[in-house]
Design brief:
By secondary structure, this protein is an all-alpha fold. Helix content is about 60%, strand content about 0%. It has a two-stranded antiparallel ribbon.
Length: about 280
Amino acid sequence: MEVARLIPGRTALLITSVASIGLLAAGCATPPPASDKAAVAAYNQANDPYEPFNRAMLKFNLALDKAILKPVAYAYRENVADPLQTNVTNFLSNLRAPVISANDLLQGEFERAGTTLMRFTMNSTFGVLGINDLAGDLGMKEHSEDFGQTLATWDVDDGPYLVLPIFGPSNPRDGVGILADSLMDPFGWVVPFEYRLGRAVGSAVDKRAQNYDHINDLEKNSLDFYAAIRSLYRQRRVEEIRNGVPASDSSIPGGISVVPQKPDGQQSKATSTEK
């Protein structure tokens, strides 16, 4: 039996991505000399020792995007009616509910876990397999959780910034999170591989279509697209881990590497959590 049929598709793809890191991560950024304190501080704050590899992976991912995903997403958003696109987004989001609820429980967020299960039950039945978000219309708002966020709430450090082939911006903690989420996803085990592959492709096209203009603007207006993506990824993860609650002190769980700067360029003492 093929290996791809023994494990969920996203898991197999992640294993391939991690294996490529083991082969290519030798291309590490050279740390600045210890005598240059400003450069050392900037290097530590970036927490990106694999920058040459990461930039190469970004270039690879962008090439795939421009050759395949971007034109498909453009055709999808231009030719599929908006209500139908919303139905597709709702359906795909509903499939993630079991994993979200499991992570809510692992984080001790029992009320949020109950809400997610209620949403899944209601939308899967009265919402016709999730294509209609009836639960949202009744005030049960959707939220997102994953095992990377769960590890952060357990005070596991994020580690250095990584760009994974196909998966994009990540870090060791979130890489483990992707693997764990794939393994705990019941749909990854009970449906045929072809359907899992279709779901993965559909999710990629749906998300790319939703972010089409934003990505274009960011790429066009950024002096360094790589650095912009890195910064936005980390900021988004902080917000997700905090469930949207603004950070007021150094209590960011898991040592998230988003550090505000003082006007003189020195690192803010309250949030100096990077490794």
